[in-house]
């Protein structure tokens, strides 16, 4: 979905992957795009260790991806708002339905309804450039913050 919106002709895009896991996203990026993985545990030597539930990375990235992350946060709206204001582009997924049994099985700690996602998007003053239904009761968003200025790789 992000490839439909973000042209690949810019070879030097900076990408942050919040909650990178095994870094599967890295294999999908066009050649030349820099990739900075963030996660709570280092699964590779280049992972920047941080607890997204406590404090999100600061610094400038042109694109922040958060795929399958928000559900594990005790305050998912805080992390989403942070990403939307820290990057020119934010690509994120969110399961907006709620099943206590599924949440318990998956280890989910937080919840955002569609209405709550819309409030965060409106509060961050971003434009949704693409949306796709995702896994039944979820969504995948590609958002642009036209006011953002990229200033270098984050920490």
String of helices and strands: HEEEEHEHHEE
The SS-based structural class is alpha/beta
Which descriptor suits the 3D outline? Answer: globular
- Tally of contiguous helical segments: 4
- Estimate percent helicity: 10-25%
The main β sheet shows up as: 7 strands, mixed
List the helices and strands and how they pair.
Blueprint: H1 2-5, E1 14-18, E2 34-39, E3 48-49, E4 61-66, H2 76-86, E5 87-95, H3 100-106, H4 114-124, E6 127-134, E7 138-144
Parallel strand pairs: 1-2, 1-4, 2-3, 4-5
Antiparallel strand pairs: 5-7, 6-7
Helix pairs in contact: 2-4
Description of the structure:
The protein has a seven-stranded mixed sheet. Residues 151-155 have low confidence and may be disordered. The longest helix has 11 residues, at 76-86. Helix content is 21%, strand content 28%. The protein has helices at residues 2-5, 76-86, 100-106, 114-124, and strands at 14-18, 34-39, 48-49, 61-66, 87-95, 127-134, 138-144. It is an alpha/beta fold and 155 residues long. Helix 2 packs parallel to helix 4 (114-124). The protein is built from four helices and seven strands.
Question: Brief overview, please?
Answer:
The protein has helices spanning 2-5, 76-86, 100-106, 114-124; strands at 14-18, 34-39, 48-49, 61-66, 87-95, 127-134, 138-144. It is an alpha/beta fold and 155 residues long.
Main features:
single chain; 7-stranded mixed β-sheet; 28% strand; globular; 155 residues; alpha/beta; 4 helices
């Amino acid at each position: 979905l992000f490839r439909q919106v973000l042209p690949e002709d810019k070879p030097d895009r900076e990408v942050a992957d919040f909650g990178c896991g095994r870094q599967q996203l890295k294999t999908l990026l066009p050649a030349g795009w820099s990739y900075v993985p963030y996660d709570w545990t280092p699964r590779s030597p280049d992972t920047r260790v941080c607890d997204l539930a406590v404090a999100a990375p600061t610094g400038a990235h042109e694109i922040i991806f958060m795929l399958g992350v928000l559900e594990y946060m005790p305050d998912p709206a805080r992390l989403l708002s942070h990403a939307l204001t820290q990057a020119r582009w934010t690509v994120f997924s969110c399961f907006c339905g709620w099943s206590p049994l599924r949440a318990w099985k998956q280890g989910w700690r937080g919840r955002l309804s569609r209405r709550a996602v819309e409030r965060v998007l409106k509060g961050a003053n971003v434009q949704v450039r693409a949306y796709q239904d995702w896994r039944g009761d979820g969504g995948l968003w590609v958002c642009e913050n036209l006011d953002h200025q990229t200033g270098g790789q984050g920490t």
